[in-house]
Fold each of these.
Amino acid sequence: MSGAMTLDGLRAAFEAGEIDTVLVAAPDMQGRLMGKRFHAAHFLDSGWRETHCCNYLLATDMEMYTVPGYRSTSWEAGYGDYTMVPDLATLRRVPWLPGTALVLCDLQDHHTHADVPISPRAILKRQVARARALGYVPMAATELEFFVFDNSYEDLRDRGVNDLRPVSGYNEDYHIFQTTKEEPLMRALRNGLFGAGVPVENTKGEAEAGQEEINIRYADMLETADFHVITKQATKEIAHSLGKSVTFMAKYDHTRAGSSSHVHQSLWTLDGAPAFLEPGAEYGMSPLMRQFMAGQLAHAREITAFLAPYVNSYKRFCVGMFAPTKAVWSLDNRTAGFRVCGEGSKALRVECRIGGADLNPYLACAALLAAGLAGIEQGLELEPEMRGDMYGAAGAREIPRTLREAADLLEGSAMLRAALGDDVVDHYTRAARWEVEEHDRVVTDWERARLFERG
Ligand code: ADP
């Protein structure tokens, strides 16, 4: 069953008593779904045209704090409204919630009805349009890793998030037996997403106790980002319904592996031919693919704040745990930041391995695409491939070590300012700096445990 619905299909499902609730939501700066629950009757009557939300939704942090220093909105500006405009192409069933459908929205200026430039969905749409204007359709898949715990979120709220019991007791990479034990959650997730029209390929155990991966079939970049946020939402909601919890933190425990969101990317011609493929060339890589990758490598450090948006994200970049530390490229080598996969075939693609599971897929895809397009527009030449274990490669381009460094690189990026606009770069630089300021200010458990008695 395809989960995609037309408005008429929704009306029929409502009249048949199958759907009574429509979630009307827009992705926020953190890539979360924010919005309202509509009675289906009201959505069908008028809600499908537009609704409204406070414009602080693109100016708060993870804890909904009203962060100072944004130009888009503030207490002085009175925190007015944005218009939420449902993108009816995203209307779908939500099989894991009773009687429910979902539609994703674009955020528009309340007065001019123009897209809000700092809105993650608008940022990505603009880069996809740039690629199309050059004659290419950008396709991507964002693999998602996450941890599953036997604790419920409510239990963790009462007892604190330190006493965690991972769903498995050992590294479950590719394990069938351990993942059989997890099927009440993972089977419901695969089938729920399939029923929502999200093309799930598979799930698997990952390389740490309690860690999972889910793969969704590659699609047009905007659709892929939509699939990503719906998949995260589904994972949390289904886990919650089973009394379990999941986390998409990039690094929930420094003694364990982190969770990634690798981004597989390829460009296709407008009539559907794989533009990265040139039979006979090295690895089958066309000059276009080489330029695209050259752009991503040249600008990798500037776009890292969009791939690793929190202080915690940088704790994932450590040696020997499959997360990269160097922004270099290599064929099928998991120690490189950029890995060429699908050598010589239609599946030829570049996988950016820098991003953590905490990335906002709209921003990550937009930044990667902007960097790749810059490489094409400037005809950049691809640097030589690196081979072997990249962790120890002296002199190789380093991924920024901290969010502080990444924020400075983002702010100074002429490429991103030209591609995304100054307002976008300034807004997200402020978001990154706020995370750093908060982290600098807060006293942590670690400091108390280390210093209280012995210091
Ligand atoms: P891995 O071994 O890296 O996990 P997979 O075979 O699971 O590789 O594929 C990873 C992802 O790459 C899948 O989500 C798949 O849909 C996607 N993918 C396959 N071909 C392409 C392509 N040409 N462009 C972008 N993504 C692709």
Note: The mean pLDDT is 96.
Amino acid sequence: MTDYERYKELSKKIADIYHASALLQWDQETYMPPKSAPTRAQQLSTLAGIGHELSVDESFGELISNLVSDDSLSEIEKRNIVQSKKDYDKSLKYTTEFVKEMSETVSAAFQAWQKAKAENNFSLFAPKLEKLVALKRKECELIGYDEHPYDALLDEFEPGAKTSTIETVFENIKPKLISLLDKISGANQNNDSFMFKHYPKDKQWDFGIDLLKQMNYDFDAGRQDISTHPFTTSFSSNDVRVTTRINENDVSEMIWSCIHEGGHGLYEQGLKSSEYGLPSGSYLSLSIHESQSRLWENNVGRSLPYWKKNYPLAQEYFSEQLVGVSAKDFYKGMNVVKSSLIRTSADELTYHFHVMIRFEIEKSLIEGSIEVRDLPTVWNAKYKEYMGITVPNDEQGVLQDIHWSHGSFGYFPTYSLGSFYAAQFFAQAKKEIPELNTKIENGELLPLLNWLRDKIHQHGKTYTSDELCTMVTGETLNSDYFLKYAEEKYGNLYGIK
Ligand code: CO
């Protein structure tokens, strides 16, 4: 066996442990009975410890170091080694004790958050979150950073991203978005009341499955289930699970979560199964992951061509609810722009303010300029400032997202970056795929999927986000594509000149 083959074997073994742990987490959020919680936390912590021990194993490190200077490797193999070396060096900064402590703290925080949210009582979550934030601050120091401690956390989700870069992106887009929103609020408003009629659960479920099938999500390599927070998880490219949620009084929740998670699922299913466990078989970053879900959700799913095909199907399922509503009305209704409390049900424009608020709060929390006990006050003040709305309670405010209970600080900005990447990629796809809009109108979504597979999915993590974006579109991330898309689309929708 060559050194590279041994490296592949060890990498697969590490991946097996992490994917087994991901399966337990999937179960925890879908089917696990409540009494199992403490034992499950212990099982996850044990696996996190084993995974960490394997990934910092000295002989694995030596193997990677030897391979760094191996000229016989192919270009992709070399890129895998460079990435694995980076991951190995980073793993060495954590002790097994720290990893297990983090895993246990996260499990406890997640349980506390669920209870706090159900009972609308932030104080039930606060002590666990305080411990978690203290550990996160410690993690920043362990990993190290050049400019801002938050950079260390961003790196986990968006390798190489800097707090300052994200600030620049947000500062660029903020005034332009505010100006567009002002014009929209001054225009005639569109009606979306038919979205909030009673839509039976079983019919919504069937409709969602139809939409996933049309996207070419592979049900022989995945499945959909119900969870409180929709998510996608993968145990290999041949087993990629998505979840959705169904609100009988708002059909849009199911539609957007199905298409969104379906987009994530297609990315994972498009990774090369022969590269399992290696960087070349893993997703690039969360921004790129989110670019895939947003492209399907927003650029495809919230477009008129998409509903020319799918609105008749919606009418078959929901003939009573949609009586007197045309495809155009439906399109207008699903794209109503309005400041709101809940991030996950926000329109695609005000969405970015939800993200900016969380980014600012996380940054302050990690640098220590605010504390956990200040969170509800700071949260509510920012919603007033950015959105002009009063948060009625913590359940709909600071407790709404799962992320902090998972210890995922540095995650939120990737949502906005993902939308901006999506707009840029989609603009390129339109240039390269003949008659893309007509194809979407006919429900032919395979040419778009094949383009994404070819340009993005198949590369896994062998390039940086900047490199990939340049390969696909000829330049690095440029949020002007998103603005152009938004101004055109919403200009038409609201009759703005
Ligand atoms: Co997503």
Note: The two ends are 67 Å apart (CA to CA).
